[in-house]
Amino acid sequence: MGSSRLDKDAFLKLLVAQLRYQDPTEPLDSKDFMGQLAQFSTLEQIANLSSAVREMLSPERTFGLQLLGRKVTYLTEDGSTASGTVTSIRPREDASGFVFVLDGGKAQISFAQIVEVTV
User: Fold this and answer.
1) Domain co-membership, 33 together with 81
2) In this structure, are 40 and 91 located in the same domain?
3) Domain containing 26: what range?
4) CA separation (Å) from 73 to 35, 76, 79?
5) Is the dihedral of CA 32, 37, 38, 44 positive or negative?
6) What CA–CA distance (Å, rounded) separates 86 from 109?
7) Are residues 45 and 95 located together in one domain of the fold?
8) How many CB atoms lie within 10 A of CB 7?
9) Residue-wise pLDDT tens for the chain (119 aa)?
């Protein structure tokens, strides 16, 4: 079932269709056109802001910030466990999450590897 909300792509398609099919003897008033462009710009900025806020408030990031300075136990690649203190977090290069840096760089782990957090 489709969404009943218009996104920025749908808005742009409507604007282009309106320009394409307008009566050439009575073109769109320049004030109306500028108003529609302003609405489109506002819509795009709100979408960008929403995306940025969603990224900032992701559970992984929020939880990650709370882990700074805490000791974590994590699964290593061979299936054993190891421990270290989270000294920093940073976004992955592919922007798919975060890397937790332990003990100043001795280990770098993902959120999914953490099995226990201690004070």
Assistant:
1) no
2) no
3) 8-56
4) 56, 10, 12
5) positive
6) 10
7) no
8) 11
9) 455 566 667 777 877 887 788 777 776 677 777 777 787 788 788 888 887 777 767 777 777 788 999 999 999 999 999 999 999 988 888 877 789 999 999 999 998 899 999 97
Name residue 81's beta-bridge partners.
75
Residue 14 and residue 37 in one domain: yes
Task: Report the first-to-last Cα separation within the chain, whole angstroms.
Answer: 48
For residue 53, the one-letter residue type is V
Q: Which residue has the tokens 């409507």?
A: 14
Full-model pTM: 0.52
**Model pLDDT, residue 62:** 74
> Are the C-beta atoms of residues 108 and 102 closer than 8 Å to each other?
yes
The domain total for the chain is 2
Residue 113, both tokens: 């590897």
114, two tokens: 């953490």
Q: Which residue has the tokens 């792509």?
A: 9
Instruction: Please check whether residues 51 and 72 belong to one and the same domain.
Output: no
